[in-house]
Amino acid sequence: MKRVVIHTDGACKGNPGPGGYGVVMVCGKHRLELSKGFARTTNNRMELLATIVALETLKEACEIELLSDSRYVIDAMTKNWLKGWKAKGWKTASNQPVKNRDLWERLAAATTGHKITWKWLRGHAGHKENERCDTLAVAAATGRNLAPDSGFEA
Length: 154
Prior knowledge:
This protein has one domain: Nucleotidyltransferase, domain 5 (2-Layer Sandwich), CATH 3.30.420. The protein is α/β, with parallel strands linked by helices. It contains five helices and five strands. Helix 1 runs parallel beside helix 4.
């Protein structure tokens, strides 16, 4: 299996508001940066979408170290929230519908076949690749011709 290091971040100007994601992927000497902006969305959706897009970009099963400053994403994966939500018919522990279900379902599918180590890191703490992801996400969120986030519900 190829080893890939993925850094992700999401940004939103207002919450909800214009948002974007940033991704940095490194495999050996190869590096790929991805970003996209959306007209109206939330920060949590952008954090999720960054992770999803990165995983969906991979063409084969990989060993992945995925680093994010999003507790929302990392805790859902490391504390088995996602599995629990699926088992409960997409309900939270308080029996409420899971927010962003469309993206959680997509993330669940995108993880299939990969061996992923999920790591949280503090945002805005000088970590080079996390700072780059933030720069990409903010630039995408403040760019022109922002796409609609078809799954966003106010």
